[in-house]
Amino acid sequence: MKEELLFCPLGGSGEIGMNMNLFAYGKPENQKWIIVDIGVTFTDDSYPGIDLIYPDPGFIIEKKNDLLGIVLTHGHEDHIGAVAYLYDRLECPLYASEFTAEILRLKLNENGFKHVHINILDPREDVKIGNFTIMPLPVAHSIPNSMSIFVQTAYGNVLHSGDWNLDPDPVIGNQTDPKDFKALKDKGVLAYIGDSTNSEFDWSVRKYKFGKFRCESAVN
C-alpha cells in the first residue's frame, strides 16, 4: 500500500486549551507518529473538584512503540501543561526551544521525572525525527521562544502554526518574519494547521483535498 501523511487532533480543536496534535507518516502497516503539544485546560464551576483537564491519550498510547517524539511550540499551559502528567505513559524524546525546555524541566521535576533530556530546537534549523524532518520558525507571542513547526516528509509538508501574532514590536520574544513563511512555498506546503482561538466555525464535517493530502475537518 502507498505511504500516507495523517493529521489527528486529540485535543484543542473546537475548544480552548488542551492542545494535542498528532502527525503520522508511512505505509498504513508501519506508520510512525509525532505529537505537537500536549496541553491542559482550566475548569470552572461546572466541574466541581477538578482543576485541570487534559486530552485522552489512549489512541497514541496504544501506538507507543511507533511514537518518535513530542514537539512543543511554546511554554503556555494549554500547550505543555499535560506533558509531565503523561510522560510515564509515552516515554519518548522531547523537543522544545530553550525557554520552553526550562519551564518543562520544572514541571517534570515536580512530578518526579528527574534529569529528563530535552532536545533543544534552534530557529530555522532542520531536525530529523525518524522519517520526519521538522523546522521551527520563530513567531511573536506573549511568551518567549514561541515557534511554528514545519513538518516535512517524503510524501509532503505541513505547516503547524502554534500560537502566533504579527506584533511588529513585541515586548518579549521574537517577531514573526513573513519571509520565513514565504520561503516555504519553494518547499511545497500541502496543508496549514492553524491555532485560531475565538474564531467562528461551522462544525459540520467537510472533506478536503490538498494535492495528495486528504483530510476531514470542521472549518468555516
Distance between the termini: 33 Å
Instruction: Please count the beta strands (DSSP E, at least 2 residues each).
Output: 15
Describe the strand arrangement of the main beta sheet, using strand numbers. 1-2-3-6-7-8
Q: Quote the average pLDDT.
A: 87
The computed structural class is alpha/beta
Low-confidence stretches: 210-220
Query: Secondary-structure element order, as H and E?
Result: EEEEEHEHHEHEEEEEHEEE
Structure annotation, total helices: 5
Write down the Rg: 17 Å
Shape: globular
Helix content: 10-25%
How much of the sequence is in beta strands? Answer: 25-35%
Largest sheet: 6 strands, mixed
Give the oligomeric state of the chains in this entry, treating copies of one chain as homo and distinct chains as hetero: single chain
Question: Care to give the gist of this entry?
Answer:
The protein has about 220 residues and is an alpha/beta fold.
